[in-house]
Amino acid sequence: MVSWLVLAARIVAASDQYGQVTFSKLPVPGATVTASRDDATRVTVSDAQGLFHFADIADGPWTLQVEMLGFSTEKREIVVAL
Protein backbone atom coordinates (compact mmCIF):
# COMPACT_ATOMS: atom_id res chain seq x y z
CA MET A 1 0.00 0.00 0.00
CA VAL A 2 1.38 3.37 -1.02
CA SER A 3 0.60 6.39 1.13
CA TRP A 4 1.11 9.99 0.08
CA LEU A 5 2.68 12.72 2.16
CA VAL A 6 1.61 16.33 1.74
CA LEU A 7 4.34 18.93 1.57
CA ALA A 8 3.23 22.50 2.22
CA ALA A 9 5.90 25.14 1.98
CA ARG A 10 5.90 28.90 2.20
CA ILE A 11 8.34 31.75 2.39
CA VAL A 12 7.92 33.55 5.69
CA ALA A 13 10.97 35.80 5.61
CA ALA A 14 13.48 36.66 2.92
CA SER A 15 15.54 33.55 2.16
CA ASP A 16 13.94 31.45 4.93
CA GLN A 17 11.77 28.53 3.86
CA TYR A 18 9.26 26.93 6.25
CA GLY A 19 6.78 24.15 5.68
CA GLN A 20 4.90 21.24 7.17
CA VAL A 21 4.75 17.58 6.21
CA THR A 22 1.33 15.99 6.82
CA PHE A 23 -0.59 12.80 6.09
CA SER A 24 -4.41 12.89 6.30
CA LYS A 25 -4.08 16.36 7.86
CA LEU A 26 -1.88 14.95 10.67
CA PRO A 27 1.75 16.06 11.15
CA VAL A 28 4.50 13.66 10.10
CA PRO A 29 7.57 13.88 12.39
CA GLY A 30 10.91 12.54 11.21
CA ALA A 31 10.40 13.02 7.46
CA THR A 32 13.55 13.92 5.53
CA VAL A 33 13.14 17.12 3.54
CA THR A 34 15.74 17.96 0.89
CA ALA A 35 16.08 21.26 -0.96
CA SER A 36 18.22 21.07 -4.09
CA ARG A 37 19.28 23.42 -6.86
CA ASP A 38 22.14 22.93 -9.29
CA ASP A 39 25.06 21.72 -7.12
CA ALA A 40 23.53 22.94 -3.83
CA THR A 41 21.72 20.55 -1.50
CA ARG A 42 20.27 21.23 1.95
CA VAL A 43 18.71 18.53 4.15
CA THR A 44 16.59 18.75 7.31
CA VAL A 45 14.12 16.56 9.23
CA SER A 46 10.55 17.50 10.19
CA ASP A 47 9.95 18.04 13.93
CA ALA A 48 7.20 16.62 16.18
CA GLN A 49 4.63 18.92 14.50
CA GLY A 50 5.83 17.96 11.01
CA LEU A 51 7.44 21.38 10.59
CA PHE A 52 10.71 21.98 8.76
CA HIS A 53 12.87 25.06 8.22
CA PHE A 54 15.65 26.00 5.84
CA ALA A 55 17.50 29.22 6.75
CA ASP A 56 19.42 31.38 4.29
CA ILE A 57 18.25 29.70 1.08
CA ALA A 58 19.50 31.54 -2.01
CA ASP A 59 16.91 33.19 -4.24
CA GLY A 60 15.75 31.28 -7.28
CA PRO A 61 14.16 27.96 -8.17
CA TRP A 62 14.53 24.97 -5.82
CA THR A 63 13.20 21.43 -5.72
CA LEU A 64 11.84 20.30 -2.36
CA GLN A 65 11.64 16.55 -1.81
CA VAL A 66 10.13 14.78 1.20
CA GLU A 67 10.86 11.15 2.06
CA MET A 68 9.58 8.90 4.82
CA LEU A 69 9.71 5.13 5.18
CA GLY A 70 6.36 3.63 4.15
CA PHE A 71 5.33 6.65 2.04
CA SER A 72 5.83 7.66 -1.58
CA THR A 73 8.43 10.36 -2.20
CA GLU A 74 6.87 13.75 -2.90
CA LYS A 75 8.52 16.60 -4.87
CA ARG A 76 7.57 20.26 -5.30
CA GLU A 77 9.17 23.01 -7.34
CA ILE A 78 9.35 26.34 -5.50
CA VAL A 79 10.84 29.76 -6.21
CA VAL A 80 12.50 31.63 -3.36
CA ALA A 81 12.44 35.41 -3.83
CA LEU A 82 12.96 38.47 -1.66
What's a concise summary of this model?
With 82 residues, the chain is an all-beta fold. The chain has no helices and ten strands.
Helix content: under 10%
Largest sheet: 4 strands, antiparallel
Question: Which class best fits the helix and strand makeup?
Answer: mainly beta
The poorly predicted ranges are none
CA gyration radius, whole angstroms = 12 Å
Description of the structure:
This protein is mainly beta. It has a single domain, classed as Immunoglobulins (Immunoglobulin-like, Sandwich). It is built from no helices and ten strands.
List the helices and strands and how they pair.
Elements: E1 3-4, E2 6-13, E3 16-23, E4 26-27, E5 32-37, E6 40-45, E7 51-54, E8 60-67, E9 71-72, E10 74-80
Parallel strand pairs: 1-9
Antiparallel strand pairs: 2-3, 3-4, 3-7, 5-6, 5-8, 8-10
What characteristics describe this protein?
Immunoglobulin-like; 4-stranded antiparallel β-sheet; 82 residues
